[in-house]
Amino acid sequence: MGIPGNGEKNAEVVRRYLRTFITRDLAELRDVMAADVEIYGAGQFVHGRQNVEAALMTPGLTVVGQQIVELFAAGDRVAVTGTNTYRQDSTGKTAAQSFCKMYQLADGQIVRFWGEQDLYGLLVGLGMLPGTKLAF
């Protein structure tokens, strides 16, 4: 799919994609992500860029900061770990959510990605769940 040695170009596409979570720029998202993108995560599979568009425009929750901790690009793959800081618009509370993602690119666009993020930590940080340890 990708061109070997195209790692830095693919890394820049992924950086542009990640920025859309702050800018909410749907035109930019369409430039860097295929319409029929395959998305894997949280034990689920969905198909189509409209799923990411909906996530970008989530009402009441705004990404106010982003830190890419590590980014590694090789061939048609880019792996990223990082943290997004969210603001709950109704309360002004902020909380960080870590993430780990891997992207596959073709022709300058993301065509498939896999990922996980710390939803539990985000919800606890925003005060939406009690901060007690879970007992199993």
Keywords:
single chain; 136 residues; Nuclear Transport Factor 2, Chain: A; 6 strands
Describe it.
The protein has 136 residues and is an alpha+beta fold. The chain has one domain: Nuclear Transport Factor 2, Chain: A, CATH 3.10.450. Helix content is 28%, strand content 45%. The chain has helices spanning 7-23, 26-32, 50-56, 119-125; strands at residues 33-41, 44-47, 61-74, 77-88, 94-106, 109-117. Strands 2-1-6-5-4-3 form a 6-stranded mixed β-sheet. Helix 1 packs antiparallel against helix 2. The mean pLDDT is 92.
Task: Sum up the overall morphology in one term.
Answer: globular
Counting helices, strands and paired strands, the structural category is: alpha+beta
Largest sheet: 6 strands, mixed
Number of domains: 1
As laid out across the biggest beta sheet, the strand order is 2-1-6-5-4-3
The mean pLDDT is 92
CATH topology: Nuclear Transport Factor 2, Chain: A
The N- to C-terminal Cα distance equals: 43 Å
- Spans of at least 5 consecutive residues whose pLDDT stays below 50 are none
CATH C-level label: Alpha Beta
Q: In DSSP terms, counting alpha (H) and pi (I) runs of 4 or more, how many helices? A: 4
